[in-house]
């Protein structure tokens, strides 16, 4: 992408009216080996008027988790009662998963920048503009938003935001199997380049006077010397984007296909999948409901959005389930048999599988459904 004005080559003098030199900000991934973008600021982007002390954030890795120790407990964390702000619920070394709820009044003069990882939002509800140095990114109910690590953003909320945020500490990418050798999305990928919502360029403007920078799970208030949004142009391949979950093209098989057919975003140690309405399997004896499974090397998180969750009873929207690896899991009793003969599913859900085990936070334990674990009991007289 290229928006606004850029000079004919990188790293040459690029002057504005009156001969004033502009300043590059070269945002690079994987050291200097990966994808990059170059932004052109009217003023130096690296100077601070003030940089504060570290303040604790909502997620604290050092807080003792899971008391009492219950490694085989089936978990259901309810997003319905989550407080305003960000509420971390699950984490490992690769990802921190938080519920988010931001009221309309949440807009403040402060902006945010996450130095710990790429943020993947899923908006269960709401409408907002993410203002960034790359331009304005609009997002609404049903959209994913990908905000790369270190990108300053300020939310202008039109309708209150509710959803979930995955902080991906090793970065987020589109899975390699969906790309051809030069990186273009393949024709058989579940999405096309046209499905992705890009920022709209605004030109240099007043930015937030203060940025809350998250680093090592602490917050530091940084007052940049100049507006971080004083960008006259940029080009490159690193930029924030949105993707509407309903633009995801689902696949149907003769018989039930594994959850990897719903792959949407890849990350270090994690995979994000999108479940969207679709026609189910076409074999006359197909069982459309997921088969009981023991995916013994992964933890699995599902964020339920809407529809009848064929495999789960009593699970409502905005809930997150975590079946523990170590024992088999699958559909609730009755759901497997009951799905035979159904031809479609209307469910919408976001799933994340992780290789490293996830731990609940103290905040998640406070939001847990107390009877969920026991809903898997079956009395057989044994
Ligand atoms: Fe599963």
Write a structural description:
The chain has about 375 residues and is mostly beta strands. The chain is built from 2 helices and 25 strands. Strands 6, 7, 9, 10, 11, 12, 17 and 25 form an 8-stranded antiparallel sheet that branches. Strands 5-22-21-24-19-18-13 form a 7-stranded antiparallel sheet, with no helix packed on it. It is globular, with a radius of gyration of 22 Å. The N and C termini lie far apart (about 65 Å). The model has no long low-confidence stretch (mean pLDDT about 95). The structure holds fe (ii) ion.
The percent range for strand residues is 35-45%
Shape: globular
For the residues shown, what is the average pLDDT? Answer: 93
Q: Work out the number of β strands.
A: 25
Give the ligands present. fe (ii) ion
End-to-end separation in angstroms reads: 63 Å
Structural class: mainly beta
By DSSP (H or I, 4+ residues per run), the number of helices equals 2
Oligomer: single chain
- Helix percent reads under 10%
Q: Describe the main β-sheet briefly.
A: 8 strands, antiparallel
Note the run of SSEs as H and E.
EEEEEEEEEEEEEEEEEEEEEEHEEEH
